[in-house]
Design brief:
The chain has 439 residues and is mostly beta strands. 6% of the residues lie in helices and 56% in strands. The model is unreliable at 1-9 and 184-191 (pLDDT under 50).
Length: 439
């Protein structure tokens, strides 16, 4: 808290001292009600029910002085009114929530100084070439940083302590880089440390396209591991459709046992957009994700993959929240790696009302042979054994640009005998209601 007061005083001092200073204060607040029923997949008992209400508050204070920018972000996060059945157990992801505090005590998400240099037109001598739009940004301090879709480097809304340099040379190429020392998340033991390096080289030379490669090094002296990732991506965004395709290769070495890391990830997400007289603006989307499984060294396991959305998981499916690492219910015993195949349809029948349908299939590329088989489509795309499926409906109403309410009802239907301790396979349900505002 003392740090926040000092930084706020510094920003206010600059506001008074420099006539060209701009000051911004942004506030975001969300309160969410979640009701989970039949989490043990057994209607005959129905003892595993959870109701919880959580909220998160984000306040960002930013000042700009010519080419300099100073920013401080603070988050307060927590749950209240939680009702849990006595037999309900915590899932593994709930035990590893990475945030410094989830009991409403504020913590810093960002605290940085940024230098920004822009050249509108850059002439290159002798060859009579003009490059339009040259940008250089250098950031020191704690900063929110995510590369591509966050499948390898996503900060989970915590922020990284380090230095980042971004450079854009017109439409021809751009560079995003980050060097971070990870102490706040993992701590240190006997002076050991965790260093994260990320270097992305991309290009938007072809109209509507964005493609490149992200090179990531995780140097973990705490666990005596070194992992390397090559993240290839191509994106295209047009008026009526957009998509992104990624392929990630995992390499490196587990130094304690001298084993080599392997593993990979495939990912595709696409949307088709249109407009209808009765349904308004409509969007149909598809997603496919396949992360490798197997042993400790072959399972796809980047440390900072995007997993958390505060006290909930980040992922696909309103209920399962499947990502490259896990799902809401945890993976069944013997399963490793995650497969997701999903479809979504969102329409806008009224001016401020948005409605949606979702259908997702969840499987795994590595699982015991005696577990249930997935569909032929899932097998073709890399799945080996099935976990379950999810379907649901949702509605969002934009009361104004500053106030939004959302409702969803989702059903997760596990395949029988996928979960050893939950063999019946009766469906579980989730009801969500949330209100969010920003000003």
């Amino acid at each position: 808290m003392k740090i926040i007061i000092i930084i706020s005083f510094f920003i206010l001092f600059n506001q008074i001292s420099f006539s060209g200073t701009k000051l911004y204060l942004d506030t975001y607040y969300k309160m969410s009600y979640n009701n989970y029923s039949n989490l043990d997949f057994d209607f005959s008992t129905s003892t595993d029910n959870v109701t919880k209400i959580y909220s998160n508050l984000n306040i960002e204070l930013k000042t700009q002085i010519d080419n300099l920018e100073f920013k401080t972000g603070v988050c307060s996060l927590g749950e209240f009114g939680k009702i849990v059945s006595s037999s309900t157990k915590l899932y593994s992801w709930e035990k590893n929530i990475p945030y410094p505090n989830i009991e409403f005590l504020p913590w810093i998400t960002e605290c940085y100084a940024k230098y920004k240099y822009v050249v509108d037109i850059f002439p290159i001598p002798y060859i009579k070439f003009l490059a339009e739009g040259i940008l250089l940004e250098v950031v020191f301090g704690r900063q929110r940083k995510e590369f591509v879709e966050g499948l390898v480097v996503g900060d989970n809304k915590i922020g990284y302590d380090g230095v980042s340099i971004d450079f854009v040379f017109s439409k021809y190429f751009y560079i995003n880089s980050l060097v971070a020392r990870i102490n706040s998340v993992f701590g240190s033991q006997d002076g050991s440390k965790f260093d994260l390096y990320s270097f992305l080289l991309g290009s938007k030379f072809y109209s509507g396209y964005d493609f490149g490669i992200n090179y990531v090094i995780e140097n973990d002296e705490i666990k005596n591991n070194k992992k390397v990732y090559y993240e290839f991506f191509v994106k295209q965004e047009q008026k009526n459709f957009d998509y992104i395709f990624e392929y990630v290769i995992q390499q490196g070495k587990k130094l304690s046992t001298n084993e080599n890391y392997t593993g990979s990830l495939w990912y595709f997400r696409g949307k088709v957009k249109g407009k209808n007289k009765f349904l308004g603006e409509s969007v149909a989307g598809m997603v496919w994700l396949l992360s490798s499984g197997g042993t400790e060294t072959s399972v796809f396991s980047p440390t900072f993959t995007k997993v958390y959305n505060y006290t909930e998981l980040y992922g696909f499916g309103e209920f399962a929240k499947a990502n490259s690492r896990t799902i809401f219910f945890d993976l069944p015993d013997g399963y490793s790696g995650v497969f997701v195949l999903g479809l979504e349809l969102n329409v806008n029948p009224l001016r401020k009302l948005y409605c949606g349908l979702e259908y997702y299939l969840f499987s795994s590329p590595e699982a015991p042979d005696n577990k249930p088989d997935p569909s032929s489509t899932e097998k073709t795309l890399g799945a080996k054994k099935a976990i379950g499926l999810e379907y649901g409906v949702s509605a969002k109403y934009k009361i104004s640009e500053l106030l939004i309410t959302k409702f969803s009802y989702s059903i997760f239907n596990p395949v029988r005998n996928a979960y050893f301790d939950k063999p019946k396979g009766d469906p579980a349900t989730k009801i969500l209601f949330s209100v969010e505002t920003k000003f």
